Amino acid sequence: MTYxxxxxxxxxxVHEGEILQWHxxxxxxxxxxxxxxxxxxxxxxxELASPINGKxxxxxxxxxxxxxxxxxxxxxxPVKEKNSDSPTDIDEPSEEDDSLFTAAKPFxxxxxxxxxxxxxxxxxxxxxxxxxxxxxxxxxxNEVKGTxxxxxxxxxxxxxxxxxxxxxxxxxxxxxxxxxxxxxxxxIRGLRRNIAKAMRNSKDTAAHxxxxxxxxxxxxxxxxQDAKPLAEQYGVKLTYIPLVIKxxxxxxxxxxxxxxxLEDDAGEIVLKGSINIGIAVNTDEGLIVPVIKNVDQKSIxxxxxxxxxxxxxxxxxxxxxxxxxxxxxxITSVGNIGGFAATPIIRWPEVAILGLMRSKLRPVVIEQNGxxxxxxxxxxxxxxxxxxxxxxxxxxxxxTNELIKYMENPALLLLNEEF
Length: 419
Fold this sequence. Notes:
alpha+beta, 26% strand
């Protein structure tokens, strides 16, 4: 009896996904738990494995197609084990197996020994991010030599190959000695497609308004420098992000509308009981926002560690669905890149996003003993974008001032028992 393998509902409002990469083809014999296909949802990339031993009859979609939850991805004809003494075929999976999927599941090493019950993969081993880049650049991964375990293609292998290829892109010499390169068309797929969809949806839905204000980072920088020896003992790197998260907590409690979502269909503003802060992470494929849950209940060192772990998982494409859902407000930092100010786009249905710009030494006027003086201070611009349907501009300004109060005087956190 033919088994229909469906795209299961991963929850958290995910309704569809994009076929990133097929790892099998029609007519191929597959083993139980053998990787079939990679599907990218708006949240994470999932790798779907076969729940049975069998023969692939049909692939119902092509790479790049969008599939809805519940759609049949592949049909499989169950087959019995070659070494099995049973006269009947293997058992088909139960209905519960229909929902089998693994978010960001690591690749399994494929062994070549037939006696161990594995099939040799005809496709090169590579991470989903490398496969996506290869499709965008029209590169055949079979031409890339992998130096990782079992011939796996590493990011360095791929980068070395593309650098060599760039020197062979056809050039056309025109009149008057002008040299021009041919146009290159890159399909908008995968994470880039999800980002484009999410950003367009946010701009079409939320009424964006951005408020700018400067903050003197001298106190936070002094605290960070004093804490560096402790950070080294813990084996972590202390950045501004965890410190700003701590300063956000009392500000969000005082202005809870900044820590809310807007449910348009219900016509309700939901003030969130938990403070779950998303941290925008720049990866090779694009911007990903993992979420730190219940930040108000965690110590500074727990936050430091979690920021580092989630950032690494984002760059390694190993985030789970739980890692990227449930956010109530987002922080995006471009300080390591540069820029004086920006207008971040809200992660709808959240109603606020805080942008941290580059901190820079600047001459400023301060009051010392009742007299104005010029001093050199480390100054950062904050960019707070809010959904004006939920948060008025005046409230956004007062919230920013409250945040700045704690950023410029982090000792106040002790009085609020937040540090």
